[in-house]
Amino acid sequence: MHPVLFKIGSLTIYTYGFFIALGAVLGALVMWRQGYKRYGMTFDQANQLFLLLMLAGVVGGKFFLIFENPSLYWAHPSYLISKNGFVFYGSLLACIPTMLWYFKKNNLPVLGMLDVMAMVTCIVHGFGRIGCFNAGCCYGKPTESILGVTFTDSACQAPLNVSLHPTQLYEAFFVFLILIFLYLKDKTKNFDGQVFLMYLMLYATGRSILEVFRGDEERGFVVKDWISNSQSISIILIIVALYFYVMLNRKRTFHKKI
Predict the structure, then answer these.
(1) In angstroms, what CA-CA distances link 185 with 23, 177, 237?
(2) Which of 34, 98, 114, 246 has the fewest CB atoms inside 10 Å of its own CB, making it the most exposed?
(3) How confident is the model at residue 209 (pLDDT cuts 50, 70, 90)?
């Protein structure tokens, strides 16, 4: 809708980048505050983790772009750098092992910190989708419903002058709802890691549904027009998260009986 936030002389501030930065800063503050409050995480540790996750997120998000159009990116690998856009699942899947490694290396409770990071991820992701909406990427299918939005700025990536599902805002709203739920659940969780695993299952389920309303065909499909790349990743993510959820819950029940 508004790809350019404002201009000062030759300096252009893009709305997408602004909201990504805003979400990252807010997420970093929550990460440090909660990490310190719960587990004594230092500011230096939080800062190091923030920088590592930014790097992992960029690398993973760019790498997964390859699967949207393999022939294009194999023929022109420089497009990964020159073209805009990231794949959220790529960033998430790159950040998870980075977090696991960092928490173990710094003797921080892995499962407990993952619960914190679930809420941090929602903050960053939610603001990021608002940025997507303004840039016009990740747009929805044409619709005649009252929820439809029309992009008119030629700098937007969405089709112009067509009423589209605002899938970016659908997802932002859904992610912030998950954030509220996780915040409340965190106060009554039964075991460490529960909040993080619930986040994975909830988001993956919602993302699979939201994909039905997406109209950007370039995001890639495993089965053309039926199962998108993101839906296939969501299915795998739900299965893996559910497995660990059951395992950790059984472990908690076993120790409780003892």
Answers:
(1) 22, 12, 21
(2) 246
(3) very high
* 1 contacts 156 by C-beta, under 8 angstroms: yes
- Rounded to an integer, what distance in angstroms lies between the CA atom of residue 15 and that of residue 202? 28
How many Å is the maximal CA-CA distance in the chain?
69
- Kindly report the backbone phi and psi dihedral angles of residue 246, in degrees, each rounded to the nearest multiple of 5, phi listed first: -65, -45
Amino acid letter, 22: L
Q: Identify whether the C-beta of residue 167 lies closer than 8 Å to the C-beta of residue 138.
A: yes
- Exposed, middle or buried, 123 (CB in 10 Å: 0-12/13-18/19+)? buried
User: Residue 109, CB half-sphere, CA atoms under 13 Å: how many?
Assistant: 15
* Cβ atoms 120, 5 nearer than 8 A: no
For residue 101, the 8-state DSSP code is H
Least confident of 78-87, 143-152, 203-212: 78-87
Cα 204 to Cα 233: distance, rounded to the nearest angstrom: 8
pLDDT in tens, 113-131: 999 999 999 999 999 999 9
Closest CA relative to residue 145, chosen from 213, 211, 197, 70: 213
